[in-house]
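If you are new to this repository, start here. Below is one unmodified record pulled from the training split, so you can see the exact layout before writing a loader.
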Amino acid sequence: MTDIFESSTDLTVAGGPVRLYRAGDSGPALLLLHGGMLDTAQGVWRRTVPDLATDHRIYAIDLPRHGNSRPWQGILDDTFYRRFLHELLDTLDLPRVAIIGISLGAGVATGYALDHPERVTALIAVGPGGIGARRTAQFLTWLIIRTPGVLRLTSRYLARHPRSIRKSMISTLTAGADTPDFDTIVELATAEAVAKADHDEPALDDWMTHAYGPFAMRLNHLPTLPHLTTPTLWIRGGNDSLVAAAEMSAAAAATPNGRLVTVQDAGHIVTYDRPEEFNRLAREFLAATLDHC
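And here is the target side for that same chain:
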């Protein structure tokens, strides 16, 4: 199942290191972008790649400051990621590609598809960041992330207290410890926490923290989604505590070629809770997109 992650290629993109994993010998190109904080390509996509690689050429990367894409300097905010993704596709020689993103990766992919619809053939956005004008406890969250050193201390705490990661996973995954490959999920997340602490990185990505303002989000794709011409499948876990159903419904309604699917009994990272259903939805949508090209 995880053979794809036993071999890799190291690239330099936008001045920093990027670890690339490849799978699939034929079919349309498909780029996979994982989420933020403790996510990595292997963690999020390990039960997705083998299925999708049967009829797609898969390109999965560890995003900057994740997995083996280290070290990086500077601020990696939304402006950075829009440039980064463009340079990544050029480096991979992919003039056109379908993109699947989760959380941060979905927000990044949405921004890029808005900027460069000519290069994105299809978009699957799972629990995307960057959707909505406000968040729960907006001002308090902004205060916390603005407090000097707190996010680096959080990385160190998680690295030294792996039980807290396990406890968090049990509470956020729909099936808790009965989630498929639960121990592996926790092991990979813990390894990522250790890597963040070792590299003195904050627990949250710059893309996330710079999106926050004190009273409203500085990054909100909703007003621009009527210009998103790329065929888009919005996916939300029915038990997602981070991205509200109303926000996802608004995103789907605003997107000219978009629709929303809610995966029941799934949380924020649908590929952890319901990998088989996610794979089916993704393959059906991508196949239908090709049929209409």
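Two things worth knowing about this chain: The beta strands are 9-13, 16-23, 29-33, 57-61, 97-102, 120-126, 232-237, 258-263. The longest strand covers residues 16-23.
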